[in-house]
Design a protein that fits this description.
six-stranded antiparallel beta sheet, 3 helices, about 35% strand
Length: about 450
């Protein structure tokens, strides 16, 4: 395996986050493999006697929630995915967590009627209240949705939960169309009554979103399979930064066109930048008859990419998003094991920050990044979603790559072990606790220890 990267220089006006992503993200994949295996960031990963989560010395975890545990009104659903930590009053935190349940899921979301969008669908979100005294209270905050994958937080302290499906009414028993974004209030569950799809933001296989806190523009990734991969979108709301419910007022959905680049996988030179990015209005965001990525965007078309996944807004004023991998045999124009892109709305510039290339190895240490999170200390965390062992990977401000956690929960067999992906990584507001999910078996961890810059 090999990684090609270019040294990135932070401008004097960029914040710490910009330095971290521009200067450090490539280092996550560029260190010597032996150093990466040894976990230079915080030291070696130590085997967990409980067989759940390996961490460096000095770190400890607490299990906040597990699939099947009792909670208010029922039991905890499965398939833990995207998540965010919101700071409440008097030291309380709220975690809103997605459940990526398809119709055959073993542990469905069971929500009261008032919180249910489609009684036939079994996905949704749960909210975990973490009180200063250490007690935990958990409840359903959205139900009747489907394949709730990732999403993102808004500047007004709500969660946007994304359905990663294009399922229509009548398919798989659905009573209405799916493929929407829903807004969830972490603090006032009554605000979540009568779930309302944000239809103007598009109906497609949503993955993640991030919001520009200055303009209110929402950036969206699409993880679509089959002919023509997903696209990168932006939503221009009629009521930008209007608070809870303001996105229901609608707006304009646009899709990105990179001049001369129909498929992002062909860009193989880290640091490659494209100016004059064009945004094309989506003719029918609700996709009444044609999926948005197939609609008519003129002779030049729009830009597609395989496995568009995590998204995060940087304090340096850029939207970061991930392509987990690209495979030629699946229809990509070129292959890679992960890309991270940055879009600068002020300059209308798209930059490839890193591309990870493989040489046929079936057991690559760093590959298939999914959810991403920037730490309060300027470094980066990446959730791995791949075969075999899965890691929570990191990079320091100094450019040092490391492994921070390894999932030890075997969901395969002794002869063919498999370990569930990491998802939903985020930090508490005070930076003292890292929260992360293991997708399967659904487990939410709170990790504390000697975090440092």
């Amino acid at each position: 395996m090999s990684l090609d990267r270019r040294r990135f220089l932070a401008t004097s006006g960029a914040g710490a986050l910009g330095v971290a992503l521009s200067g450090t993200i490539g280092a996550l994949f560029s260190g010597a493999p032996a150093l990466a295996h040894h976990g230079r960031g915080y030291g070696d990963l130590l085997p967990d006697p409980a067989g759940l989560l390996d961490l460096p010395r000095g770190f400890r975890y607490r299990i906040l929630s597990r699939q099947g545990d009792p909670m208010r009104g029922g039991t905890v659903p499965g398939n833990f995915d995207g998540m965010y930590a919101f700071q409440g009053r008097r030291g309380e935190s709220r975690l809103v967590r997605n459940h990526e349940n398809r119709q055959d899921a073993e542990s469905p979301v069971r929500a009261p009627a008032a919180l249910t969008f489609d009684p036939a669908a079994i996905g949704g979100t749960t909210t975990i209240a973490l009180r200063p005294n250490g007690s935990v209270d958990e409840h359903v905050s959205l139900g009747g949705t489907a394949v709730n994958c990732a999403g993102g937080a808004t500047p007004w302290q709500t969660w946007l939960s994304c359905e990663e499906t294009e399922g229509r009414r009548g398919e798989q028993g659905y009573e209405t169309d799916h493929g929407w974004i829903f807004e969830v209030d972490p603090f006032h569950n009554v605000h979540n009554d009568r779930p309302t799809p944000l239809t103007a933001m598009g109906r497609f296989a949503h993955e993640a979103v991030c919001v520009d806190p200055t303009t209110g523009v929402v950036y969206e990734t699409e993880d679509a399979a089959g002919e023509k991969f997903g696209c990168f979108y932006r939503f221009l709301p009629h009521r930008p930064l209007g608070g809870h419910g303001s996105l229901r007022a609608g707006g304009t959905l646009q899709v990105m066109r990179v001049p001369g680049v129909p498929d992002l996988s062909v860009v193989q030179d880290p640091g490659a930048a494209f100016d004059d990015i064009t945004w094309i209005d989506v003719p029918d965001p609700r996709a009444a008859s044609t999926p948005v990525r197939f609609q008519d965007y003129g002779p030049a078309g729009v830009t597609h990419a395989q496995k568009l996944e995590g998204a995060w807004w940087g304090r340096d004023g850029g939207a970061y998003f991930v392509s987990s991998y690209a495979i030629r045999e699946n229809g990509s124009a070129a292959g890679h094991h992960g890309q991270v892109w940055r879009y600068d709305p002020r300059r209308r510039r798209l930059t490839l920050m890193v591309v990870f290339r493989g040489e046929g190895s079936e057991d690559q240490l760093f590959e298939t990044p999914d959810n991403i999170c920037v730490t309060p200390f300027g470094g980066l965390m990446l959730c791995q979603d791949g075969g075999g062992e899965n890691y929570l990977m990191g990079a320091t401000m100094a450019g040092e790559p490391y492994l921070f956690a390894r999932n030890r929960q075997n969901i395969g067999t002794d002869s063919a072990p498999a370990y569930g992906e990491f998802a939903g990584v985020c930090f508490s507001a005070d930076g003292r606790t890292l929260y992360v999910n293991c997708y399967n078996p659904g487990t939410t961890f709170a990790i504390t220890g000697p975090f440092r810059a």
